[in-house]
Amino acid sequence: MDVLYHEHGYGGGTFEALNGRIYGNGTETLVLAHGYGADQSVWYHLIPYLACYFKVVVFDLVFSANVSPGLYNPKKYSSFKGYASDMVNLLDELRVNETIFVGHSMSAMIGCIASIKRPELFRHLVLLGGSPRYLDEKGYNGGFTRSEINAIFKHMHQNYTSWVQAFAPTAIGMNNTRATTEFKNSLRRMKPRIALSVAKTVFLSDWRSILPEVLVPCTIIQSKRDPIVPNSVAYYMKRNLNGHARVKILDTGGHFPQLTAYNLLLKVLKRFLVND
Questions:
Q1: Which of 61, 98, 182, 264 is most deeply packed, by most CB within 10 A?
Q2: Using an 8 Å Cβ cutoff, are 104 and 71 in contact?
Q3: How many domains does one find in the chain?
Q4: Domain span at 82
Q5: Contact at 8 Å (CB) between 202 and 195?
Q6: 199-237 b/e with 16+ CB inside 10 Å = b?
């Protein structure tokens, strides 16, 4: 078993190493997994409501500034499979099955990969602003050309602080000073070398081929005007996921509806998860 803390000599397990926390005491477990550049605090608007119905698990992905940088192994995390392995270990430590998994951005695919590896751990996947591939290809609109991706990497390498100043408001995609500041601060706290390494893993990934292997029912949620993921990607995933999948497009903008349109997002989650 690929155990995070055994690799690096840390005690306490994956849950402790990734700052795992549990809110609420519902009989059903709901896992919230954040995306690139963020940490578990991105869910703070949703947790008080969701904890009324579920046992809510949050944690930080290994690249987060809240996690010891010694735990970030560039080789292991050059693929989403490394993150999915951590996810499986975390759930095994909690001894839970049939969880509801809400994965934002890169964590959407991490959840899909983990569900293929261990389908009994998941009852439902909520893919929030997720994408199997960010690069355009003939017949596929991923949202970015190769030259745009290369420009992002170059900017990050040459002046990380300047890149953060430009990228954060673009990703938030709404006139929301608080959300933009929070995301900027989260990005700024990352070590630039780790931030660039993870960005390459995310933006150069292509997980389209695994979608038919996902047998767990999925709900795909996305902002109507997402600057990172085109709406067409949501419907591409729906067509290619083998299990039951449905799409809900939120009438809002930006890549972080959990920060900028959390009331809209909560309504959808309540309808699909609480009332199911």
A1: 61
A2: no
A3: 1
A4: 4-274
A5: no
A6: bbbbbebebbebbeebebbbbbbbbebbbbbbeebbebb
Q: Strands, DSSP E only, in 24-156?
A: 29-33, 55-58, 99-104, 122-128
Facing residues of 135 across strands? 144
Chunked mean pLDDT (size 10), the chain, 276 residues: 35 86 94 98 97 96 95 96 97 96 98 98 98 97 98 98 98 96 97 98 98 96 98 97 91 98 96 79
pLDDT tens digits for range 49-86: 999 999 999 999 999 999 999 999 999 999 999 999 99
| 232 has catalytic annotation | no
User: How far apart are the C-alpha atoms of 79 and 81, rounded to whole Å?
Assistant: 5
92 annotated active-site = no
Parallel, antiparallel or unpaired: strands 21-23 and 55-58: antiparallel
Q: Give the per-residue pLDDT at 273.
A: 87
Encoding tokens for residue 46?
Answer: 């949703």
Lookup result for tokens 């010891």: 68
Per annotation, catalytic residue among 64, 85, 105, 107: 105
pLDDT attached to residue 275: 66
**105 is known as an active-site residue:** yes
Query: What CATH code is carried by the domain that includes residue 124?
Result: 3.40.50.1820
Instruction: Dig out the tokens for 129 from the structure.
Output: 């602003």
The length of the chain in residues reads 276
Question: 206: number of CA atoms within 13 Å, CB side?
Answer: 9
What pLDDT is stored for residue 141 in this prediction?
97
Classified as helix, coil or strand, 250 is strand
Sequence-distant (6+) residues with CB within 8 A of 48 are: none
CB 260 within 8 A of CB 172: yes
Virtual torsion, Cα 224, 236, 196, 256, nearest 10 deg: 20
